[in-house]
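During the no-cost extension, the postdoctoral fellow (Dr. R.K.) reprocessed legacy sequence entries with the updated structure-token encoder. One reprocessed record is reproduced below for audit purposes.
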Amino acid sequence: MTAPLGPGTYSFSTDDVSGERLDLGVARLTGLSRTQAATLIATGKVTVDGRSERASFRCMAGESIDVTIPVPPGREIAPEQIALRIAFEDDDLVVVDKPAGMVVHPAPGNWTGTLVNALMGRGQGLAEGAAPERAGLVHRLDKETSGLLIVAKTDRALRAMSEALAARRITRRYACLAWGHLDADVVRVDQPLARDPNDRTRVAVRPEGRQAKTDFHRLARFDSAEFLRAHLHTGRTHQIRVHLASIGHPVVGDDTYGGGGGRRLVGLPPKRHFLHAAWLVFTHPVSGVEVDLRSPLPEDLRHSLATVAGEPDWFAHPDPLEYLGFYRATG
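Re-encoded structure tokens follow.
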């Protein structure tokens, strides 16, 4: 039996539940009980291709089901005094340079110590358009991915930035180290992604999944790995990690998708993968001014890069990304 999914919004293909009642299909896809699934449907937390349907609706192949599982009643998100590195802030937005190891929002097993808890602890207003546990979040980063993340302070800013993200008007480029060697200097992976039916905590390339496209540019080649710039055209869960693993070059240190071995060879600490949201460009939703933000490689990744390159001096460089031409990206 599938373990129940925690709070969050999930997308599924109807292909796996074609012909079933909607409440039974949602229950099977999420691991929830039929009663819980029916409650979500009745309260507008389930849509089929963007429309509301009754619990008795018969699912048809070729559609998508979106399910929002709210935080259990009575669970309050507590403000916490946790230091954050702020890359940009004004009355509408705050961009956080998230450290590796920090979960973005509260969920079962991580109700405290998250980025949202820390933001609430700053005593600032956050957009209320999202669920409390995701207050103001425009997008997310995986726990062990570091780097730049946008949070909206007002509902107006959240709507505008969410629309810009959906329309691909926010440029997000990541620095990553991948095992092995790509077949070319520039590789595009255009493969649909969906939850792995055998493990709902993982994502897999699936023909019925949502479109996902990533461009990878090789910036440096080493004996066992390559340093890449990844450009997201879409923003699916685990997209970069799954796309690289799908072509046989998993992210170094990624225990989930096959890149965790050889960690000592590249000087990478435990429970850390080499993926950093380093460059973010967007148009401010109120002023209309272009915002260009850059986050240098954290110390642990600089050390790893210097180790794999066999160039100790790289560790002393304030930002190896500049040295390697990361910010000269055009694609």
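Residues 8-69 form a domain with the Structural Genomics Hypothetical 15.5 Kd Protein In mrcA-pckA Intergenic Region; Chain A fold (CATH 3.10.290.10). The chain has eight helices and 14 strands. The remaining legacy entries will be reprocessed before the final report is submitted.
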